[in-house]
From TrEMBL:
EC number of the protein: 3.6.4.13
Protein name: RNA helicase
Chain's gene name: WBGene00114475
Lineage start: Eukaryota, Metazoa, Ecdysozoa, Nematoda, Chromadorea
Example of a GO cellular component annotation carried by this entry: nucleolus
Keyword hit for Lipid biosynthesis: no
A Pfam entry, by short name: WHD_HA2
Reactions mediated catalytically: ATP + H2O = ADP + phosphate + H(+)
Length: 1144
């Protein structure tokens, strides 16, 4: 007997297994249900659950409010009741349900807020987490909360809690292991989807909005008018821009389009319009963000146009900042988007990117909890009574660095503190109040900071506007510009936003509804943002009143508002750097930001600012900016500024080669100062300049430790490395000759020495993860904020500073590759017959400066597992006995780290003193010790020329007689640390085979044909800045380096005689195997074939199976202001910029 719900709808695949699902739910406290697209899980499983519960409500969570509301309406209709009776929903600012409502659809954030007041969620007998595979931040925290509540309710013997995890067919094992639950698969009802790629768009896709626009017009021209189009874009701005362009074009089209936007901040009534049929004779075109990827089935959609992009926020623990940027989607997201076209019948998916771009995508998206600022999560968990955050086991555990960063942020805001025994975290009274407000912790601190400043009314408004979407629209009409000038304030964007909101409140008293919206549009104001902000302000005001906060206004004294903003946003405080024409974060001076062009302060240069949001394009841009006084944030910053960096100088050597019997660092180097004194003063000056307390540690050998400790006192911390026995060269047994029986084990011992001395644990306990290690006699090894920033931003574990290898340091360490792994090579490791090869600067071009950066967190659990190749040094004792010293180098440990990089640095960072000639050179007038105690050259001669002058008069070969190294030696602008070049798994071989020259265009074609997947290749292109401008359109780069690196087997580098866009291709001894479809390079052939590599049959899900159809011809569609451009065509031979290739 079918239920009423089954009679009101078409049959679904889930109907055939409903009884089995009920049995599964009865037999298990938790189960994981994988429902393929179209199976009916989101609407039917909550109804099935009503048959097994005795008391309590059924909650079903959705990642997005539009899904929660539309599903509630659908299920209410199926159950023959009004929304709010048997079935209701609850989202922010809106709820339609009663105490006896059976099924409540809600956002995961709403259920999580309930858990703060009732951690056991006692009112619910069943909680269903739908679309769990999306892994939103709230979903992951909710999964942990549910697992904990289920266990606690069971332990107490109270009403049991059933948990149902519903997901697409991915990551099933992850959920099953986390809950120890069975997996049940429900087959779906989908139709084949033909997938087409825009092959000629292979590249960075920077103009993706235009390409999407052309794709829409082309699909509209060639596809049946009955097929509606769903378009995936990244956000409201792109959607509104595309909608405006389409409406302009629509007037000239014979067949019209009905254009509907769909994004989270849209009003409910407007969101629901996408489910209505298009007007007669028109095609419905829905412009959506990723909220349309799952849950929603929009009737009539047969065509999907996928931009391949998504806008997401990423947190960098190193800098402590959130950055909003447009990223590539994952393959899983691409499949989800394509599947939207096959919900009701067969369809098509136009992917506005190439097949190669698809292959470069990650398999699945990085879970939000692994890339987000966790301060709000930790505050929520502690509010639920979880004081030992370290013991919290989420479904995927964020890095210790992310957790520590969030903890430090909350402590900086005064929200939490350590318990008396230091083992747990507890809320302060400030934190208890902050947790009550459903906004980010810095914004709730802004509100609390406004109380003594008596500007809570203004703070509530600004916080509400910052929690809503963009306030100002792109509107060039005169009326909008007049209003913008009227509300603009020289104090910054926050005061400008406040003025606009107050203008809206005044107008609201006179107008309402459509007229109010029309007024806002004419003023260039986003009515949805204003209305939503008003709702948020009302909610926050009610919470504030419940907490006993009196709402007061500062009137026209807006300085008080800016002070309260500085209190909560002090971590976003910046200081203007005149030389860089940009702002430096006060808490992370290596991070440079610029004011976004949309800011009212974009054309001014205030000395100090705070911002609310960072946007990443080519540079970091601060949005929502206000002018502040530095004194407003100094107190908070000085408390918070426990930087992550520490410095270690290697101080184990004796100056025997220079006639010294004590520590080498005690030798006078310059201006009467010893190497040790220069290192200490240089470091002290750095701390003074940046107002920080970066510690300096000295790793001494047993030869130097006691004497050094006596000299440095409290100016530096000291620890001692191990000692190893010297071996008799003949017997290989330890010798017994007093002090000469031992030798330091080399700098590779630093990992064990840090652990054994307790210094590693001590540094980590103070939040200092990054250590900069260098020799004490290297007077050029000053602490670099640029490289420290690189370590933090990129999450690197190991960075080696390298420079170009010269004739005078040809015996120094270099880099090689063995078995795909970058490794360090020193001359004692080289067989005698290959010494000449090793010393050739034409073969081995990279020199290790022994300036090393290491993350302590990367090896804190395994310091004894960090290994290096043994270096065998043959020595002679004072008695003439031949001995062997076994040593390791810190450079040799590069092979132990997966996230290892080399950076090219200028020669000025490597000024070592290995003997008397080096010492005389440093003492000469060629060098000056500046005010920062850094050694500087006095003239324009290169470091190489200076070394020749003092060392070897026979080394007079012209620079042009040597092959170029890592960079073009004539490109002097490349010798700045601020323009770092990055190397991933650096590879250096003696090239063999054929050398050919190609221009840039030919080279790109050559690379495309040799390698189908650049991410699994290994070749490097070294470009001049001019060449890079030509190349940058081809590859999406976060920065703009002068060296572009891919991954392993080819090197492509400039030849000395090359022209600006000509390259020398050096074939390796063992080039990678190439298939018959790939182009071979012949000695006699200077041209490269441009024929595309044939695609192999792709293995796609059935959502992406191509449907049969006759080939179509290309279509050109005119777009206002742009040239005609074809976007899709089934004939793969076309070379138009947007050709789409049908997937087989």
């Amino acid at each position: 007997m079918r239920s009423h719900s089954q009679l009101n709808r078409l049959a679904l695949p889930i109907d055939d297994v409903a009884d089995q699902i009920l049995e599964l739910l009865c037999d298990n406290d938790t189960c994981v249900i994988l429902g393929e697209t179209g199976c009916g899980k989101s609407t039917q499983i909550p109804q099935i659950c009503t048959r097994l519960r005795d008391t309590g409500q059924i909650a079903i969570t959705q990642p997005r409010r539009v899904a929660a509301m539309s599903l509630a309406m659908r299920v209410s209709d199926e159950m023959g009741s009004k929304v709010g009776d048997k079935v209701g929903y609850r989202v922010r600012f809106e709820g339609v349900c009663k105490e006896d409502t059976d099924i409540i659809y809600m956002t995961d954030g709403m259920l999580l807020r309930e858990a703060i007041t009732d951690g056991l969620l006692n009112k619910y007998s069943v909680v269903i987490v739908d679309e769990a595979h999306e892994r939103s931040l709230h979903t992951d925290v909710l999964l942990y909360t549910l697992r904990l509540a289920q266990k606690q309710r069971k332990d107490k013997g109270s009403n049991p809690l059933k948990i149902v995890i519903m997901s697409a067919t991915m990551n099933a094992d992850l959920f099953s292991r986390y809950f120890n639950a069975p997996i049940y698969l429900i087959r779906g009802r989908t139709f084949p989807v033909e997938v087409l790629y825009a092959e000629a768009l292979d590249g960075d896709g920077s103009d993706y909005v235009y390409n999407v626009l052309v794709s829409i017009l082309q699909a509209h021209e060639r596809e049946p008018i009955s097929d509606d189009i769903l378009v995936f874009l990244t956000g409201r701005e792109e959607i509104e821009l595309t909608a405006a362009k389409l409406r302009d074009v629509n007037e000239k089209l014979a067949q019209k389009m009905a254009v509907f936007p769909l994004y989270a901040a849209l009003k409910t009534t407007q969101q629901q319009k996408v489910f209505e049929p298009a007007p007669e004779g028109e095609r419905k075109v829905i412009l959506a963000t990723n909220i349309a990827e799952t849950s929603l089935t929009i009737p009539g959609v047969r065509i999907v146009i996928d931009s391949g992009k998504v806008k997401q926020k990423t947190f960098t623990a190193g800098d402590g900042i959130d950055v909003l940027r447009v990223e590539r989607i994952s393959k899983a997201q691409a499949a989800q988007r394509a599947g939207r076209a096959g919900r009701e019948s067969s369809g098509k998916c136009y992917r506005v990117y190439s097949n190669k771009d698809f292959d470069r995508m990650q398999q699945s998206s990085v879970a939000e909890i692994l890339r987000s600022n966790l301060s709000a999560v930790i505050l929520e968990l502690i509010s639920m009574g979880l004081k030992n955050i370290k013991s919290v086991k989420l479904i995927e555990q964020p890095s210790a660095e992310m957790m520590d960063s969030a903890e430090r942020q909350l402590k900086g805001l005064g929200a939490i503190r350590d318990s008396k025994n230091g083992k747990k975290l507890v809320l302060t009274s400030v934190g208890q109040t902050m947790a009550k407000f459903p906004v980010e912790p810095p914004l709730s601190k802004v509100l609390l900071g406004s109380i003594p400043l008596e500007c809570t009314a203004e703070a509530l408004t600004v916080i509400s506007l910052l929690s809503s979407e963009e306030l100002f629209l792109q509107n060039d009409e005169d009326s909008a510009q007049v209003i913008r000038r009227k509300v603009s304030s020289t104090e910054g964007d926050h005061v400008t936003m406040l003025n606009a909101f107050n203008l809206f409140k005044a107008e609201k008293k006179k107008e309402s509804g459509h007229k109010l919206a029309e007024w806002a549009s004419q003023c260039g104001l986003n009515i949805r943002s204003l209305v939503n902000a008003a709702k948020i302000r009302k909610q926050l005001g009610e919470i504030a009143s419940e907490e006993g906060i009196v709402i007061k206004s500062c009137g026209v004294d807006r300085e008080r508002l800016r002070k309260s903003l500085a209190i909560g946003l002090f971590m976003n405080a910046c200081e203007y750097d005149n030389q860089k024409n940009a702002y430096r974060l006060l808490l992370s001076p290596s991070t440079l930001v610029r004011i976004h062009p949309s800011s009212v302060l974009s054309r001014s240069r205030p000395t100090h600012i705070v911002f609310s949001q960072l946007l990443k394009t080519t540079d970091l841009y601060a949005k929502d900016v206000s002018v502040i006084d530095k004194s407003w944030v100094e107190g908070a910053i000085s408390e918070f500024k426990k930087t992550k960096i520490a410095v270690i100088r290697l101080n184990g050597g004796l100056g025997t080669t220079m006639g010294c019997t004590g520590p080498k660092s005690f030798i006078e180097a310059k201006n009467g100062l010893t190497f040790l004194e220069i290192a200490l003063r240089q470091h002290e000056e750095f701390n003074r300049k940046w107002d920080v307390q970066v510690p300096i540690l000295l790793m001494n050998s047993f030869f130097t430790h006691d004497t050094t400790v006596d000299v440095v006192g409290s100016r530096a911390e000291c620890f001692v490395q191990s000692k190893c026995p010297r071996l008799d060269a003949a017997t290989l047994l330890p010798i017994e000759e007093g002090d000469e029986s031992w030798n330091p084990p080399g700098h590779g011992n630093i990992y064990v020495a840090l652990k054994e001395s307790g210094k590693m644990d001590e540094l980590l306990s103070k939040g200092r993860d990054i250590v900069f290690v260098s020799n004490i006699d290297n007077t050029g090894a000053e602490l670099s904020l640029e490289i420290a920033g690189l370590m933090g931003r990129e999450g690197l574990e190991y960075v080696m500073e390298c420079t170009v290898r010269t004739e005078t340091d040809k015996k120094g360490g270099t880099l090689i590759e063995i078995g795909g792994q970058a490794m360090h090579l020193e001359i004692p490791q080289v067989p005698p017959e290959h010494i000449d090869d090793f010393c050739s600067t034409r073969i081995f071009k990279v020199f290790n400066t022994n300036n090393i950066w290491v993350s302590l967190n990367a090896f804190k659990e395994k310091p004894y597992e960090i290994t290096s190749e043994i270096i065998v040094n043959k020595k002679t004792t004072s008695t003439g006995r031949a001995v062997i010293q076994l040593e390791t180098s810190i450079g040799g440990s590069i092979k132990n780290f997966t996230k290892s990089f080399c950076v090219h640095v200028p020669r000025s960072r490597f000024i070592p003193v290995k003997g008397i000639p080096d010492l005389e050179r440093v003492r000469s007038e060629q060098y000056t010790l500046d005010d920062a105690y850094c050694l500087r050259l006095n003239d324009k001669k290169s470091e190489e020329e200076i070394r020749k002058l003092f060392f070897d008069n026979d080394l007079k070969k012209a620079a042009s007689s040597r092959g170029h190294g890592i960079v073009n030696e004539n490109a002097h602008e490349w010798t700045e640390v601020s323009e770092l070049r990055l190397f991933s798994k650096v590879v250096y071989y003696k090239p063999a085979g054929v050398n050919r020259h190609f221009n840039l265009g030919q080279l790109v074609k050559y690379m495309n044909n040799i390698f189908e997947d650049e991410e699994h290749c290994d070749f490097a292109i070294f470009l001049t800045p001019e060449d890079y401008k030509l190349y940058q359109k081809r590859k999406e780069m976060t920065n703009k380096p002068d060296i572009i690196i891919f991954k392993p087997a080819y090197k492509i580098r400039p030849t000395p005689e090359m022209e600006k866009s000509t390259f020398n291709v050096a074939m390796l001894d063992k080039p990678p195997e190439r298939t018959a479809s790939q182009v071979s390079l012949k000695e006699t052939d200077r041209s490269i074939s441009s024929t595309p590599v044939p695609l192999s049959s792709s293995k796609k899900s059935k959502e992406e199976n191509s449907r049969s159809g006759s080939p179509t011809t290309s279509a050109s569609v005119a777009v206002p202001g742009r040239k005609k451009k074809a976007i899709a065509k089934n004939d793969s031979r076309s070379s138009s910029p947007g050709v789409a290739k049908k997937e087989k």
